[in-house]
Structure formats: structure tokens, C-alpha cells
Design brief:
single chain; 510 residues; mainly beta
């Protein structure tokens, strides 16, 4: 009765007027008391935004199992950061997009906790929600849940922690997220998905870091570190690129399960994982290219049923063999070309041209007996046989070029706020409409590349590609330099000799 009366009073108060936003304040200092009433009022008045007063906790009826119906609205914290707390106290989900809903609503900058599921999108629904800048924590189920055959969910810039499972998605991108300390898997990509997981930190979860079921999903530019299971387990998919898989308790990367399928791993670091580096199974195949597989607690790269083609990669210092083929069936095959590995480290494989047994001379390795661990510096020292000037094939071997880190990478598994970047990129203005000034600082002279990437990891532009002195760097950039207009979100990626120094999300205005 109170809800109906409140809504009626609100409608009378605002009849004939237009709101820029409906304000929810459970202390009575706004337009309505509950988030659901805010959505209902905004839909009636035709207002696109519902703002939730920050510094308050929203619990009880009207603040859980919140739905949008057919209304496309934005529900966000009034203060711009995740200060408004949505706490169902385990009475239900926080937000739901049930079958029959048709909207493209956005949930932005909210702290969602103590729900069954933070956001639920069951199968066969027509909603296409965006979850942006939210923290979702301490749910008894999945933080963000998208079921098989659900519509795309866009997840951008969220922190998802201490849930039973972090995220489960069917379609849509997951970008720039911190996913950590969940009891099970960090991210699960369900069957038949085309999702792209990019620029995410996935660490310290109680199961697999990222699990990809049969699909055409991709994982790019992610750090997957210190998970209790494998770093990435992919049944089928389009592969991984520019990922760091370090210190996971099982394997770094496992691929396979379906006969006859294949994928690739390119420009990846696989180090310090407990069971081993890379494993191929299930009569499937993997091409491992320009990757560094070092100091893992077991076999470096192992196929026990499928095929494994290794090209321009380093396999060194692993506690088991460096690469091994155990099965010997008609599907099982191991080959190495233009790669570096320890003498006698290959079992059951065929060696192509231009391989080497010389020490790759990385900056700092760590004994494989310490696995699982996070550490080491796998850039190359001057004179390394993995540099183009020293390799037998005249091309770079491994994930990184020449250059060592100025300092050891911080251990951000136990310090969630430390992201491990060695510098920061500043973009002014951000969002960008046309032109922008881009600034960063180099701790020492180095060869530097600054690239603009889309959310799928595809390079849009190269802004800098040269040797720069230490100190402050400023680059002026214009979107008019691109062959096509950018809209939405992209990422600046700063690297030195292949090693990631910094990244920055950039929003573009149409």
C-alpha cells in the first residue's frame, strides 16, 4: 500500500514536468524510497536516468529482484562512484532481466553485495544490459550471470570479488574488469558464445581463472594469476593473445576436449604454474607462437592426445620436460620450429629448422621448484639468442624483446589495489570527441610502442613506435587520423620490447 501511495504522490508532484533524473533516497530526501519505485516512476515520466543517493544501503522490498520490463533506463549512483549500496541481504537477486524483458538498460557505479546473484540474465531473454563501473561482491551465487542463449551482456570496468563464481557470460564483451577471490571460477564463458574477454585481471580465485566452454570466444590482453585451478581452460575457442598466465596452481593454459578443433596462443607468458605450462588434450590442436613458457612446476608444453605446433617460442627451466608428446596416436603430434629449449628437453616430438639449445638469457628467472609463484622478469638481455640479431631464424623468439623491468612487479594477488603497471597514461580530455593530449612517464630510456586497441584486442592505430629517453612524454593525437570513426570504448596500450608498461581506457563521443 505504501509503495502505491508513494508512486501516486510522486506522479502528482511531477505531473506535466520533465525530470533530468529520478532520485532514490531511502531517507525520504529524494523522489522515491526504493530503486524499483525509481525505475517505475522514470518509466512513467519518460526520464532515462535513475540516480541512487550514495552513502546509503538499500535493502528490503523494492531493492532486490529489481526489473526494468521494456524500459531502457540507466540506474546509477548519484555520486559517480560505487557508493550507493544495493544489499538484498540474500533475499534474492539484486537486478533481474527475466524472459520477456526487452530493453538495453545500464547499471552503473553501484556497490552490489549480499545477493543470491548480483545481476541475473537467464536464457531466452531479449534484454541487452550493460554493467559498468560496479563492484559486485559476497553473493551466494554468481556475481553476474548470463545463461546459455541469453542476449549479450556488456561488462565494463567492474570489480567482481568473493562470490561463489565471478561472472558467467554467453554473449557480449567483458572488458577492463578485476575478478578475484571468488570461491569457484573467475569467469565462465558458456557454450556457443562469441564473447571477447579483454584487458582483465583474474586472480586468486578458488577454481579456474577463465573457463571457456565450446564456443568461438577469445581471451586477449588479460593477466590470469594465482588461481587455484588452471589459468585458462578452453574447450574450444578462437584462442588467446598477449596474456600472462602466472602462478596458477594447476596448468597455465589447457586446451582441448572436442576432436578436430584447433586454436592458437600468441605472445603469451606462461610461467610459475604448479602442474605445468601448456597442455593439449582431446584430439584437438594448438599453435603456440612467440610465447615464453618458463619455470613451471611440471612439463612446459604437453600433448597427451592432440597436436601441438610450437614456433618462435622459449621453453626453458620447466621442472618436467620442456615439451612432450605422450600419446602416439594418429591424432597426437608435437613439432618445434625456430624455438629455444633445454638440451634433451623434448620427448616424442619432431624438430624443424632453426631451433636452439642456448640459454635464452632472460632478465630474471625463478627456480621451477618454487611453483606456483608469481615473479621473474622474462625480458631479454643484450646478446640473447632469442633476439632477431641472435636467433637462427632472424626473428624474435618468445613473448618479449630486449629490456628488463626497472623493478620487480608488485604482488597484486595479496594487494588487490596494486595493478602492477609501471607507469600511468593520462588522456585529456577523456572522453575524446576529436583531439587528445596523451601523457606518460618513462622511468628509463627504452624502445616504446603506444597503440590504440579496440575491446577485442584489434589494433586501431600506432601512436608511438620509437626509442625514447627517460622522463615525461606527451603525444598529441587526433581521431581524424583514423580511417573510420571510433565510438564507445578503446584502450591505449604502452609496451617496451613487448612487455606491458601501462594501459588506459579511453571513451569516445560520437
Amino acid at each position: 500500500m505504501r509503495r502505491s501511495l508513494l508512486l501516486s504522490l510522486s506522479l502528482l508532484a511531477w505531473a506535466g514536468s520533465s525530470l533530468s533524473a529520478v532520485l532514490v533516497d531511502n531517507q525520504g530526501n529524494g523522489d522515491v524510497l526504493t530503486i524499483q519505485d525509481g525505475i517505475n516512476l522514470a518509466a512513467t515520466l519518460g526520464d532515462p536516468v535513475v540516480e541512487v543517493r550514495g552513502g546509503l544501503q538499500y535493502s528490503g522490498p523494492g531493492n532486490y529482484d529489481i526489473t526494468f520490463g521494456d524500459q531502457t533506463l540507466t540506474v546509477r549512483s548519484e555520486s559517480g562512484g560505487p557508493t550507493a549500496i544495493v544489499d538484498p541481504q540474500f533475499a534474492g537477486d539484486a537486478f533481474r532481466f527475466p524472459p520477456g524483458d526487452v530493453n538495453q538498460s545500464t547499471i552503473e557505479n553501484l556497490l552490489i553485495r549480499h545477493a543470491v546473484r548480483g545481476v541475473e540474465c537467464p536464457g531466452n531473454n531479449q534484454a541487452q544490459p550493460t554493467i559498468r563501473g560496479c563492484t559486485i561482491e559476497d553473493c551466494t551465487g554468481t556475481g553476474i550471470y548470463g545463461d546459455y542463449n541469453s542476449s549479450p551482456i556488456t561488462v565494463d570496468g567492474c570489480t567482481v570479488r568473493r562470490n561463489a563464481t565471478g561472472l558467467q557470460v554467453f554473449e557480449g564483451p567483458v572488458t577492463d574488469c578485476e575478478v578475484y577471490h571468488n570461491a569457484g571460477a573467475g569467469i565462465v564463458v558458456v557454450e556457443s558464445s562469441t564473447a571477447v574477454i579483454s584487458f582483465c585481471h583474474v586472480y586468486g580465485n578458488g577454481g579456474t581463472g577463465i573457463e571457456v566452454l565450446p564456443s568461438t570466444a577469445r581471451v586477449v590482453d588479460c593477466e590470469v594469476v594465482g588461481n587455484a585451478g588452471s589459468g585458462i581452460y578452453m574447450v574450444t575457442g578462437l584462442g588467446i593473445a598477449r596474456c600472462e598466465l602466472r602462478g596458477n596452481h594447476d596448468w597455465g593454459f589447457v586446451f582441448g576436449g572436442w576432436s578436430g578443433v584447433s586454436t592458437s596462443a600468441v605472445d603469451c607468458l606462461v610461467s610459475g604454474n604448479g602442474a605445468g605450462g601448456v597442455r593439449v588434450a582431446g584430439e584437438s590442436g594448438l599453435s603456440l607462437t612467440t610465447s615464453t613458457v618458463m619455470d613451471n612446476g611440471g612439463i612446459g608444453a604437453w600433448t597427451d592426445e592432440g597436436w601441438l605446433h610450437i614456433n618462435r617460442s622459449i621453453l626453458w627451466g620447466n621442472c618436467g620436460s620442456q615439451a612432450q608428446n605422450d600419446d602416439g596416436s594418429r591424432f597426437s603430434e608435437l613439432s618445434l620450429t625456430c624455438s629455444i629449449f633445454n638440451v634433451g628437453g623434448i620427448i616424442g616430438g619432431s624438430l624443424g629448422p632453426s631451433n636452439s639449445n642456448d640459454d635464452p638469457l632472460v632478465c630474471r628467472s625463478i627456480s621451477c621448484s618454487e611453483a606456483p609463484f608469481v615473479g621473474g622478469d622474462y625480458g631479454l638481455l643484450a646478446g640473447s639468442p632469442a633476439l632477431p640479431s641472435g636467433s637462427a631464424c632472424g626473428e624474435r623468439i618468445g613473448a618479449f624483446g630486449e629490456g628488463c623491468s626497472p623493478a620487480s612487479t608488485p604482488d597484486w594477488i595479496d594487494a588487490a589495489e596494486a595493478a602492477g603497471w609501471r607507469t600511468r597514461i593520462q588522456v585529456n580530455p577523456n572522453p575524446v570527441r576529436r583531439d587528445a593530449a596523451i601523457r606518460f612517464q618513462l622511468p628509463e630510456s627504452a624502445p616504446v610502442r603506444l597503440e590504440l586497441m579496440d575491446a577485442s584486442g584489434r589494433r586501431l592505430d600506432t601512436l608511438v613506435d620509437e626509442y625514447l629517453p627517460a622522463g615525461d612524454v606527451e603525444v598529441w593525437w587526433s581521431a581524424s587520423d583514423l580511417p573510420r570513426q571510433i565510438s564507445g570504448v578503446a584502450f591505449l596500450r604502452l609496451t617496451s620490447s613487448g612487455k606491458l608498461l601501462a594501459r588506459q581506457k579511453v571513451s569516445f563521443l560520437e
